[in-house]
Amino acid sequence: MPTTAPPSIAPFANVSATAGRADVLLTAFAPVAWGTTYIVTTELLPPDRPMLTAVLRALPAGLALAAMTRQRPTGSWWWKAAVLGALNIGAFFALLFVAAYRLPGGVAATLGSIQPLVAAGLAAVILKERFRTTTAVAGSLGIIGVALLVLRSDATLDAVGVLAGLAGAVSMATGVVLTKRWGRPVSLPAFTSWQLIAGGLLLAPVAALAEGAPPTLTTANYLGYAWLATGGTAVAYLVWFRGIARLPVAQVSLLGLASPAVATFAGFAVLGQTLTPVQLTGAGLVLTAIWIGQRPPRDYVN
């Protein structure tokens, strides 16, 4: 067994506080971009095509990055890339959409908000990262905040949807931890392309079987898919995987709480939806949780 940590685990100890804040801000672009998915889907994309949307997010972005980098996996990275692509992209997207279709959106988002705590727990076991009290507090505040932000009092539960929502959170948390554990053997764009292609190829037959042939697309559809594939996927996952390599797992995962907050405020700004005092309280708790989670432990900063 190797006695030295993979490159993605160790070097953050030598990063300055200023660089750490820059890493946090750059990584935060990913959940902010993902938060626009709901508004783009409802306003620009054809209805009832979630799996097609997932494929068109992942596969074109992955192929474009692969065309630029021209680096293929070698050795064990064939199966590692497939596993990471399934956990971070393919299985996660599929489970997310199953939960979204079978549950009210607020329930699905609340279930997904357990991901930071799951990731922190797995990181403590697999990466030996210390599970801090502040992580538990921030994660708990995040769950409560998301629930207040998006959960409706008349929400109903569906067993399959609940299981899919929980499994999706576990899938992404496991992907984050294994991404950090295994490190990155090639450039960031090439590494990202492998996972997007693997995830897209996993989703393509599911989309074909579940939804049939793609519909005729309009200009608005093309614009929506273009944003999701570029800013919402290619760029978002580039900065997300970069953040995983440079920041503690719990710190990165808590940034994901920004996604439902952005989705809620996008609905307010674009669709004219109202924000209740309860939702504003939830938003405050989510921001507090993110702020607490971004206070790095002393052993990660000079």
Can you describe what's shown?
This protein is globular. The chain has helices at residues 17-34, 37-44, 50-69, 77-102, 105-112, 115-126, 133-150, 159-182, 188-211, 219-246, 249-255, 258-271, 277-293. It has one domain (11-295). Helix content is 74%, strand content 0%. Mean pLDDT is 86; it is low at 1-16. The chain is built from 13 helices and no strands. With 302 residues, the protein is mainly α.
Q: How much helicity do the residues have?
A: over 70%
Structural class: mainly alpha
- Low-pLDDT runs of 5+ residues are 1-16
| Rounded average pLDDT | 86
Could you provide a short overview of the structure?
The chain is mainly alpha-helical and 302 residues long. Helices cover 74% and strands 0% of the residues.
Summary tags:
302 residues; disordered N terminus; mainly alpha
Q: How is the secondary structure organized here?
A:
Layout: H1 17-34, H2 37-44, H3 50-69, H4 77-102, H5 105-112, H6 115-126, H7 133-150, H8 159-182, H9 188-211, H10 219-246, H11 249-255, H12 258-271, H13 277-293
Helix pairs in contact: 1-10, 1-12, 2-10, 3-4, 3-9, 3-10, 4-5, 4-8, 4-9, 5-7, 5-8, 6-8, 6-11, 7-13, 9-10
